[in-house]
């Protein structure tokens, strides 16, 4: 540990008072309206009048903070209205838009009291909240069962990032890039994959990484990303990843498994870029000793696919066409067998990224997504080559009128850690 | 970083072959039967014939590993039957009990083919899976909507740990205790709460901590636990915690917020004890300079409440009686105002812990849980005292015939980091 890192002075010993209150909407009225209007467009399209939002990622999208509670939105009425269980310290600028509650059954009464007639058919986040929670919320609005699903509309809205969101992603990309630039300094002889990963995790945290890796859905579990080398990359995981890894324990069977980093073996680093609440996704290759020409060629191909797809990412492009192009380039190089995995193949070559790591659009063969300006997309055309290991890079791009602009700007060539 | 830590030798450069296959049931037949029989008892009680399990924590409970797929259980039929989406490498001892599938709609056909007549009314994990997922699974079994909920039965079954589970918890407690013993060596002058936390996270990971902090339900989010000092402990969080903390960012508003560690200020460490797939929960206090008598007295009171409650944890005891005893002891010491928080009070003094951090039983005023032999319970009678900060300890206990046996054995007194 570098001495002198912790150089703050002990000044007053007196303890600060905790804050009296916290603003519930950190976005400001304009930015919130911008996000809501995208959601209202979707509600309009599907003829949904009102919705109750509870998922942490969606609450964060609508307010810039996470709290425990609910947001009631109505595309034709006033609002949004906040129903807060915790923390008790939240305040809204307009007192008549926020209510502290103990349970969701109180929401309807508050709405009635302020003259907001909630629709008989309120949409819920059916992809995000448990079946029991959905049934309870439906009951709290007098319905026998949940019916309308607001989740796909929120997912679509969140796929196009506002300038303020793009700014957070750019700042995450900068931090992420800096951490990757330091990786060769973290390596020490004799390290296993997990040893290097732990040092990268620590440096990431020191640079402000929040650690939490938000994943939509309730199936996929990851800690802070993966460092893979050797045969371990070709161990299929429970998830739809090109790279697998046995992990350290069958309770979390993914990623580093304690494989020793050996000369000439590519080491693939794909760790959490959540520095701002919005996360970038970036993968780079590192090595000790000499890297084979075959590994270098595959890495160049991966970077070339990224560049080609980024230049094709024009608003209006079909996401599936990007996927097709990637597979064609892999096939031309005779690499089909290793593309997006070897013993187990991931079904996509890219994905939206933002508050969560698996957002829209999805760059996959049967994707119906159309690329839009403001999409933020991670491309990860990777290979697993038997006897060589995991090879390839991943970048995050912001889609503009002239294609994808890369915001994960570490050099794309394999980096020596010697 | 200590030199010589990474001392493995580069031997053969040849890459291992990945493993041909992995056993799906790592528990062995007897242990799995032991766990299933607890679940079948619950199904019997609620007249549920069969259930489909998908939640990662429950899959881990039933097999000792996480995979992406489903487990079909029938209290009167053969089985369990495994339906695996990923990884492709899983194998069962008896081939006719495991099927690789691409989607859950294939499950019923496989069951039909092997002569297992799935009930018209299959129970699902309605507290654990999304409303959309539950609807889809119900449809895959010919039902128009999900109806029976297996989640509470699994929660009850998992509340009583088998000897094999207790062994994993004991081993996590040992690692957890070792890491806490090293905390004074991690402190450097000028550190903020987050700086110390990062060093504890790193050491935890080096000692085998899996990092992942499993939490039941979809509301609570935490990274690797919390280090709190000063006024920050009295900042209410979105969750039902005695201690809060603003966190580093409003997207994860809990825990360390960058407060400088100052002489005389208690530093409360409550970080992830997941070393084996089963996690222990432990909190200890650290400080620099001199700690006030008031802080020491409150810490002693916390330890005394723990000891008293542990001795009361006899099978058959009402969980709510433990809570009452804790509040009485706090009141006798004139500490009611600060007990389980100050500006925000947690509604419990303890909770079950195991695969997830919030298991049964819950030690709370309205809890109907009854303490059973084999329960594993974390007790955390903590205080937040204005001008002093967070004070108290937390231990994890295994309930036996003579009360709770502590498995988080770090010394309970506040520890100087000077």
3D structure, described in words:
Two copies of one chain form a homodimer. In chain A, 29% of the residues lie in helices and 18% in strands. With 418 residues, chain A is α+β, with helices and mostly antiparallel strands. In chain A, a hairpin with a 3-residue loop joins β16 (382-385) and β17 (389-392). The first copy, chain A, is globular and about 70 Å long. The model of chain A has no long low-confidence stretch (mean pLDDT 95). The interface between A and B is large, with 100 and 100 residues.
What are the SSEs and their pairings?
Two copies of one chain form a homodimer.
Chain A: E1 22-23, H1 29-45, E2 50-53, H2 56-63, E3 68-74, E4 81-86, E5 90-91, E6 98-100, H3 107-113, E7 123-124, H4 131-140, H5 151-159, H6 163-181, H7 183-186, H8 193-206, E8 225-229, E9 267-271, E10 273-274, E11 279-280, E12 284-287, H9 293-312, H10 319-332, E13 350-352, E14 359-363, E15 376-379, E16 382-385, E17 389-392, E18 395-400, E19 403-406, E20 415-416
Parallel strand pairs in A: 1-5, 2-7, 4-6, 12-20
Antiparallel strand pairs in A: 2-3, 3-4, 8-9, 9-12, 10-11, 13-14, 13-15, 15-18, 16-17, 18-19
- Sheet of most strands of chain A: 5 strands, mixed
- Helix fraction of chain A by DSSP (H/I, runs of at least 4): 25-40%
Q: Which regions of chain A are unreliable across 5 or more consecutive residues at pLDDT < 50?
A: none
The CATH topology of the largest domain in chain A is given as: Creatine Amidinohydrolase
């Amino acid at each position: 540990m570098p001495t002198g890192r912790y150089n703050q002075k002990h000044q007053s010993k007196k303890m600060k008072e905790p804050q009296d209150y916290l603003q519930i909407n950190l976005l400001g009225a304009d930015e919130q309206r911008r996000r809501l209007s995208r959601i209202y467009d979707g509600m309009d399209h599907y003829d949904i009048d009102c919705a109750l939002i509870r998922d942490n990622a969606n609450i964060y999208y609508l307010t810039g903070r996470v709290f425990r509670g609910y947001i009631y939105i109505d595309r034709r009425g006033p609002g949004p209205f906040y129903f807060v269980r915790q923390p008790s310290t939240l305040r809204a600028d307009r007192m008549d838009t926020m209510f502290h509650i103990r349970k969701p059954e109180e929401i309807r009464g508050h709405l009635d009291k302020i003259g907001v007639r909630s629709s008989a058919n309120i949409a819920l986040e059916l992809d995000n909240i448990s079946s029991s929670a959905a049934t309870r919320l439906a009951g709290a609005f007098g319905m026998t069962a949940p019916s309308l699903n607001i989740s796909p509309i929120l997912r679509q809205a969140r796929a196009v990032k506002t300038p303020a969101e793009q700014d957070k992603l750019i700042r995450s990309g900068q931090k992420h890039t800096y951490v990757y630039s330091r990786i060769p300094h973290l390596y020490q002889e004799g390290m296993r994959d997990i040893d290097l990963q732990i040092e990268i995790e620590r440096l990431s945290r020191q640079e402000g990484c929040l650690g939490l890796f938000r994943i939509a859905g309730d199936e996929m579990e990851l800690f802070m990303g993966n460092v893979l080398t050797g045969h371990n990359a070709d161990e299929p995981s429970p998830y739809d990843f090109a790279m697998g890894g046995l992990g350290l324990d069958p309770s979390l069977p993914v990623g580093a498994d304690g494989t020793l980093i050996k000369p000439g073996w590519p080491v693939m680093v794909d760790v959490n870029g959540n520095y701002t609440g919005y996360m970038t996704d970036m993968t780079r290759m590192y090595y000790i000793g000499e890297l084979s020409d075959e590994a270098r060629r595959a890495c160049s191909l991966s970077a070339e696919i990224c560049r080609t797809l980024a230049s094709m990412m024009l608003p209006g492009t079909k996401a599936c066409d990007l996927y097709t192009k990637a597979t064609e380039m892999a096939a031309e190089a005779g690499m089909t067998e290793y593309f997006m995995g070897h013993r187990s193949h991931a079904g996509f070559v890219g994905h939206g990224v933002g508050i969560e790591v698996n957002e829209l659009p999805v760059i996959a063969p049967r994707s119906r997504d159309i690329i839009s300006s403001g999409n933020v997309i991670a491309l990860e055309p990777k290979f697993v080559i038997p006897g060589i290991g995991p090879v390839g890079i991943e970048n995050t791009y912001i889609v503009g009128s002239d294609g994808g602009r890369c915001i994960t700007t570490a050099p794309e060539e394999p980096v020596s850690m010697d």
